[in-house]
Amino acid sequence: MLNLLRFRKQADYSHAPQLEPDGGITGREAYDRYMHEMEPLLLASGGEVLFSGSAAGFLIGPEDEYWDHVLLVRQASKAAFLAFASDPQAVMVTAHRTAAVADSRLLPCRPERTAGN
């Protein structure tokens, strides 16, 4: 799954005030907390992070569209992803992502066979 993420300047924990650190944190910091807590759950479900990195402006695409971060995640199957995403611990940890992200896109992808493969 390809994730495109745009972070809030200041994380918004209004939906989960008990998780907000004293003094608040940036959206990027909240997302880092999310990944720190979520990655072990992802690995336990058979998934893995293939790529995580900063995004730059498009070479081809709208000039006014930007993303702060790109994440490429592989999951064992759609069923494994749905089970992972509905796990109560994962749901709780997702509150950090909700606080962090101003906008996002999630694009499920799968490899295609090419000539010679």
Query: What is the highest CATH level, the class?
Result: Alpha Beta
Number of domains: 1
Count of β-strands: 4
Mean pLDDT over the residues? 92
Please compute the radius of gyration using only Cα atoms: 16 Å
> Which structural class best describes the helix and strand composition?
alpha+beta
Numbering strands along the chain, what is their spatial order in the largest sheet? 2-3-1-4
Q: How many helical elements? A: 3
Sum up the overall morphology in one term. Answer: flat
Largest sheet: 4 strands, antiparallel
Which series of helices and strands comes N to C?
A: EHEEHHE
Q: In angstroms, what separates the terminal alpha carbons?
A: 22 Å
For this structure, the CATH topology is Alpha-Beta Plaits
The percent of residues in helical segments reads 25-40%
CATH architecture: 2-Layer Sandwich
- Which ranges are low-confidence, i.e. pLDDT below 50, for 5 or more consecutive residues? none
Which range does the strand content fall in? Answer: 15-25%
Give me some keywords for this one.
117 residues; Alpha-Beta Plaits; 3 helices; flat
